[in-house]
Automatic annotation (TrEMBL):
Protein name, as recorded: GDT1 family protein
Membrane-spanning intervals of the chain: 35-57, 69-86, 98-119, 126-149, 161-179
Keyword presence, Transmembrane: yes
Keywords from the named record: Membrane, Transmembrane, Transmembrane helix
Length: 185
């Protein structure tokens, strides 16, 4: 159970203000709160979290236990760097109202975002990809629902600062995990 709860908390914190959330919020502000947008966002969040859990399961079969912590630290570091470096556009342009196009955009954003790196890293680190995947699906759904239900809150400077701070924290935690595992800390 610790893998589920810790992954859920990590996904919620790492996913605040992410590119997929900004895209969902922008569409909800411009088009109104269409249920189809929420449904597509939930499907995309579930699909990408499931993919991250599957990738963690594959990696678990390949890695010996000591290497799992190092690999988890690398995934957490990538999540932190993604939060620090990649900044979502304030108001993405959507030329169509196509839900299929939205699904493709969300899948592209979510496959490499910090929240899915968290699912992947925690699944490998805790050797519990199914629990981490379930937490990723739940956390991704909560983040998508938040962006759809309260889109005006994602356009504040506080959210952008929170994202940067979380990226820094994730990077420091990843570095500490790595240095601890190799015996320097």
């Amino acid at each position: 159970m610790p893998a589920f709860y810790l992954t859920l908390i990590a996904v919620l914190l790492a996913g605040i203000g992410a590119r997929d959330q900004v895209t969902i919020a922008a569409l909800a502000r411009r088009q109104g709160q269409r249920p189809g947008v929420l449904l597509v966002a939930l499907v995309s969040a579930a699909a990408t979290a499931s993919f991250a859990a599957w990738a963690a399961m594959v990696m678990l079969a390949e890695l010996p236990p000591p290497a799992r912590t190092i690999f988890a630290a690398i995934a957490l570091g990538l999540a932190g760097l993604e939060s620090l470096i990649l900044r979502p556009r304030r108001d993405p342009r959507e030329p169509t109202n196509s839900l299929g196009a939205l699904l493709l955009v969300l899948l592209a954003h979510q496959v490499t975002d910090a929240a899915r790196f968290m699912v992947f890293g925690m699944g490998v680190g805790f050797a519990a990809p199914l629990a981490s995947g379930a937490a990723g699906i739940l956390g991704g759904g909560v983040l998508a629902g938040f962006a759809w239900g309260w889109p005006h809150l994602l356009d504040t400077p506080a959210i952008r600062w929170m994202r940067r701070i979380m990226g820094g924290v994730l990077t420091v935690v990843a570095l500490a995990m790595f240095l601890s595992e190799i015996g320097i800390l």
